[in-house]
Amino acid sequence: MAVSKAKSAAFNAALEAGKYIKERRGNIKHIDYKGAFNIVTDVDKASEKMILEILKSDFPDDSYVAEEGGGHEASKTERRWYVDPLDGTTNFTHSYPFFCVSIGMEEAGQMMLGVVYNPIADELFYAERGKGAFLNDEPITVSAIGELRHSLLATGFPPDTGIIQPHNNMVPFTTLTNLSHGVRRDGSAALDLCFVACGRLEGFWELKLAPWDIAAGSLIVEEAGGRVSDLADGPMDISTGHILATNKLIHDEVVAEMKKLDLK
Amino acid sequence: MAVSKAKSAAFNAALEAGKYIKERRGNIKHIDYKGAFNIVTDVDKASEKMILEILKSDFPDDSYVAEEGGGHEASKTERRWYVDPLDGTTNFTHSYPFFCVSIGMEEAGQMMLGVVYNPIADELFYAERGKGAFLNDEPITVSAIGELRHSLLATGFPPDTGIIQPHNNMVPFTTLTNLSHGVRRDGSAALDLCFVACGRLEGFWELKLAPWDIAAGSLIVEEAGGRVSDLADGPMDISTGHILATNKLIHDEVVAEMKKLDLK
């Protein structure tokens, strides 16, 4: 069965790349700015190379979508990998200890496998479609909190907030801060999704994320018993990257608040 | 010399209470709401009792200011302890892994000693006036980043944001998100101050904090080479709790932005 071989390759790639990233923390040779706002380092690029080499040695004919451009589309496969070699690059460059490697695999348009590894906390989140979600081999589930007012949430803002999108997500942030225990803003969408999956957060939303940010984490949330949609409760579309992920119990309440805001 | 005895007592209290808090994570018997908004658990109370017993056994005649009300003012001493038995209680109740114990000691109105312990990361931050700042016994210094636009910041919002103070701090949050690499909002002021001290953040600000939130952390920032003031660059007053702490290099630039906002 392809999934168990894929699982083994994804674990191996995430752990190897995570170890490398952890060693390089606080020792960055070069910072570039993608499109003037988005930080990328030599560590992002080296981590991606490492991951793609491991995955491609087992799955040379698959398609790969990777943040630093090392992917390619294959014509003869229905299997596609989404690779974020370092989610939370801004945190990483500042040594703020919240970043991860994220690897997702889809077959025939459906996410089948998600692996997210935080090398600082040594936490490996994993899910396989239909088989549940795990943190370091222990099963995880979303939280049982049923009301928004008792919930802890998280969100993020895109790198070009301030120049191109000055008001991006500030209205939802203010609104949901006022209605909940608070909104964390910790700088890694993939880890925020895993925190929803293991019950540390009741919900997470963000706008305009990239496919590699959410491919693995969205499956991990669903397999932990949570719900993933766009902000209006339609199907989450990995190409637009608008996402709301919750413990399912508060989903309708958050969607109702989002609908009041008339978001663009 | 009193400081070395005080240091030993504060280390002992922070490590003991931190160990207890870590064990109780995810296993809370009772949540109260102080003043309808501020969460307090049986763990906050037990941690405070543990810390005060340790400190008072060595310093029975000192004054104590503690978050859960276990303190008392002594008339014959110029020495006062500030104890936050669990900074980041909201995070703790959700098992979001970012909370700490904070213990500060002042003599004759001047902070002399600060100890902050994060039991999940096992990070003990420490400073003694005139002797530098340390993380797990290694000296720490603030970051060398000199421009706001290349800085990572953090802030917080009070528990009653939404009802009593609906717009609290949202304008500074939006403004500084737009001018920097981003503003983290992770739910523990004491840890945010320590992150400024060790260079993981260039700056932190918040309004209306309590003395026990900032007593230890503000000394740790100063001893690591940073600068602490109120938001208008006047002296930080522990009784009003408006604080701006930076790596010193970006301080004037942040103060200039705050002055434009005409904060109440």
How does the overall form of chain A come out from the CA principal axes?
globular
Q: Which pair of chains has the greatest number of interface residues, and how are they split between the two chains? A: A-B, 34 and 35 residues
Q: Tell me the total number of β-strands of chain A.
A: 14
Beta strand % of chain A = 25-35%
Sheet with the most strands: spatial strand order of chain A: 3-4-5-6-7-8-9
- Which structural category do the helix and sheet elements of chain A fall into? alpha+beta
Low-confidence stretches of chain A: none
Question: Can you walk through the features of this model?
Answer:
The structure is a homodimer of 264-residue chains. The first copy, chain A, has helices at 2-24, 42-58, 89-93, 170-179, 189-197, 211-223, 251-260, and strands at residues 31-34, 38-41, 63-66, 79-87, 100-107, 110-118, 123-128, 133-135, 138-140, 152-155, 182-184, 203-206, 227-229, 243-246. By secondary structure, the first copy, chain A, is of the alpha+beta class. Chain A has a 7-stranded mixed sheet with strand order 3-4-5-6-7-8-9, sandwiched between helices. The longest helix of chain A has 23 residues, at 2-24. The termini of chain A are far apart.
